[in-house]
Amino acid sequence: MINIANLTKNFDSFKALDDISFEVKEGEIVGLLGPNGAGKTTTLRILTGYFNPTLGNVKYDDLDIIEESIKIKQKIGYLPENNPLYEEMKVKEYLTYAAKMHDIAKPDIKSAVDKAIQTCGLAEKQNQEISKLSKGFKQRVGLAQALIHNPEFLILDEPTEGLDPNQRIEIRDLIKNIGQQKTVILSSHVLSEVEATCDRVLIINQGKIVASGTPAELKQQTTSLTKIFITVEGPQEQIVEALKKVEGVERVVNAKKEDNLTHIELETDSTLDLRKKLVHFIINNGWELYEISRQEKSLEDIFVKLTKTV
Amino acid sequence: MNHIKAIILKELRNYFNSPLAYIFISIYLVILGWLFFSNFFLMGQASMRSYFNYLPWVFLFLIPAITMRLWAEEKKLNTTEILYTWPIQDFEIILGKFFASLLFLTIALICSLSIPISISFLGSLDWGVVIASYLGALCLGAAFLAIGLFVSSLTDNQIIAFIVSIALAFIFFIIGENLVTYFLPSFLINLFQYLGLGYHFNSISKGVLDSRDIIYYLSIIGFFLYLNIRQIESRKWK
Fold it and tell me: Which of A196, B45, B131, B190 is 20 to 30 A from B97 via CA?
């Protein structure tokens, strides 16, 4: 279990992290979500012992990251942002080096390397120079390095960054697979990914945690989440003004005219289903209703709402 | 210790898998050899004295070329993020890099043994002085390496590391030379001489293995390795 308490990090006068606290339970896959510059990488770097926080502490099973740093690092596998690798080395060579640096006993090194290669699907590339691999395979090498010593904790910084959709799915499945036996913290700004892989999500913005919970919980957390789409024929401005006054309509997001039809997007109170009311309202006013549909607010909308700079 | 060994192996492999190693050793052997042999037959003496007179100046340029990539490259590629989060100590990384480059230097020096061996066929070579001189060269080289390694840790630009290493090594070398001590008040001369890298090298090259000189070199090497450790550690608190 990881305990993060009151983490603050200042870079000169810039406050990168502002009193962040959270917990990660054993076996959880936790996602750190946030826009670029929010503090995700800074948080992960403190968690892996790359540098120390200005204030606050991090404890792994009651071991402090600063005091017992070597012990803790032995239990962590880290894939940094941009996946730095020694490109002049061959895959197997690099993983063997990583194994030695993690104190794997000499007789066990070969099997550990082979296992990591198998798990990450690197078998056919194992004797190739890393510089010659595609981005997807390089990412796998980075992941293999993080797994070589079979760590309890996996910390991954934007693991699918820069990969094409196929590669993303592969890495995602790999992480989900591996994550079954380990405690995983990953960061991303690809919401669908976080939704698909994580048990719990933390949204970070400007160094603070602005939301926390399971993807389902988060969707319910923010109010006025339901979007309703209406296509109507009639005088646009009049309709929009009238709709604004309907009880339960939070706001009109936008209204577009196409030929003689107006497409209107509304944000409404998610505790009510306003479709029936709106249908009656429109018809009673003498306008023609062509289409009405409802869309559940996605994680993306919550993300945008919570992280947009006012 | 295993970590240090693994790092030494990796860095050495890196040197020899790239043209860098072969270029360096070739240039070293050719330039120093040419400088030496230009006057050798004129002098007509079976001595390597002038070889070791030129050596510090050739080292001054070539050793920063070895060390410039040691830290600067890691910082540029950000592989430092991997090194600093692996369960290894900072000093292990530094010692690994230092000893790898020292081993490489030793290999280069061994390659130059062809010179004293061939001279010994021409005349009676004082092997005691030669061996002492090689030892002095190793000490001087190690000091330059420690300086270069430290400077490399200050930047992610290899060219800057190269130039500043030369400058710093030059300063440490020159302060003990007559060029500088000539201008000093007499009470400072001994101090400056003692601090000069070249001064101690000259003593050792004469064939006298004085513990003061060995201690001096070990102190310089220790000093710059220590600075290196502090520099690396400082990242945690920035």
Answer: B131
Chain A residues in contact with B17 (beta carbon < 8 A): 88
CATH fold of A222-307, please? Alpha-Beta Plaits (3.30.70)
* Total Cβ atoms within 10 A of residue B191: 13
Q: What is the pLDDT of residues A64-103, one digit of tens each?
A: 999 999 999 999 999 999 999 999 999 999 999 999 999 9
For the range A64-71, what are the long-range contacts, defined as Cβ-Cβ under 8 Å and sequence gap of 24 or more? A70/B87, A70/B88, A70/B89, A71/B87
Tokens of B36: 């030496």
Task: Give the best residue of A100, A153, A157 to mutate against chain B (max B CB count within 10 A).
Answer: A100
Strand A288-295: give its sheet, edge to edge: A249-258, A261-268, A226-233, A288-295
Task: Give the domain ranges of chain A.
Answer: 2-219, 222-307
Domain boundaries, chain B: 2-237
Option in B79, B86, B235 nearest A86 (CB): B79
Q: Percent of chain B beyond pLDDT 90?
A: 60
Q: Which residues contact B94 (CB under 8 A, 6 or more apart)?
A: B149, B225, B228, B229, B232
If you compute the radius of gyration of chain A from its CA atoms, what whole number of angstroms results?
Answer: 25
Chain A CB contacts of B81 below 8 Å: 45, 50, 80, 84
| Fold of domain A2-219 | Rossmann fold (3.40.50)
Instruction: Quote the tokens at residue B111.
Output: 């390659």
For residues A211 and A203, the answer to whether their CB atoms sit within 8 Å is yes
Which residue on chain B is closest to A10 by alpha carbon? B238
Number of C-alpha atoms within 13 angstroms, CB side, residue A290?
Answer: 11
Identity of the residue in B6, B18, B85 whose CB atom sits nearest the CB atom of A50: B85
> Which of A14, A43, A50, A54 should one mutate to test binding to chain B, selecting the residue with the greatest count of B CBs within 10 A?
A50
ipTM confidence score: 0.89
pLDDT digits (tens, 9 = 90+) for A168-218: 888 888 888 888 889 999 998 888 888 888 999 999 999 999 888 888 787
Give, in order, the Cα–Cα distances in Å from A216 to each of A27, A209, A270, A293. 19, 18, 14, 21
Q: Judge whether B143 and B197 are in contact, CB under 8 Å.
A: yes
DSSP letters along A187-201, please? EES-HHHHHHH-SEE
Nearest residue, CB atoms, A97 vs list B6, B17, B84: B6
Q: For residue A297, what is the DSSP state?
A: P
